[in-house]
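Troubleshooting: if your tokenizer reports a length mismatch, compare your output against this known-good record of 299 residues.
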Amino acid sequence: DGLWFKYDRRIPGRPRHILMRRILPHESVLALLQDNCIDLVRNGWSRLLNPGQIAILEEDPRFDVRHVPGSSVVYLGFSLKGPTASMDVRRAVRDAIDRQQLVVKVENGLAVPCKSWAAPSVRIWPRAKKEARSQSSGPTAPLTLIVDKARLADLRLAHVLQLQLADRGIKLQVIGMIGKSLDSAIAEKKWDIRIERTWGIPYDPHLSLIGRFLPESGDKTAVQAPQTAVPQTLIDLVRAAMAEPSEEDRLQFYIQIQDILDAEAWIIPLYVPFGTLVARRGLPLPQVNHDLYHFTFRP
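Known-good structure output:
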């Protein structure tokens, strides 16, 4: 029926098949778990379960819920048109944000604050240094943040950000959209700020960096064309990192890229949600880590 994928296992004494189910856009993963349609969910950057749903499952005696460090960074991107073309405006927005409060109020504590392009679990990426502060009080006109209203955690994040910025005198208009209207608004840049996220391991830091900051290659790939302008200095550094086959030797470019992000606030990293594993109680729990695709099943 196009929903199920069967993986054969050839190890004697262990389950012979694993069935993986595709989730349709209109389906609720919480309902599928509660209705015994699926037995195990691994939550990652796609956010199959939001923090409120995870809390419900943690109280349900039919399920075991485990949390592991995540590797996908939630961050703010700017249109870099109008007021957000100003470095001081971008810095002022960053100065107004309390990352720890976001972790508590948006993610129910199931995240860690982050100031870097890549998560703390991505060890090759350098940690952020002291972020340069704004020399102004921020924009005089309201800023517009568009958000996918189907993503409840993102909608909650937008409204908490709205309150935080208001405390510093920055007006933020939150507009929830969905589907084609959202895609059209993004493409036409009818916004100042939007919520984005890196893909996490195994794509971070390198492939996410290329997908976010390099111009469209023209090749048919899963990477969408960037929706914002990017300074040439940053493009050159990402290209230099891409040309270096050794990840250890890329570190010199990673350091420079992070330094530019710290100084000029081209994006604002916010936090890294935990990876969550939900399994029906009584089933053997696979071992998982910060790599979304890594499962180890043991008898």
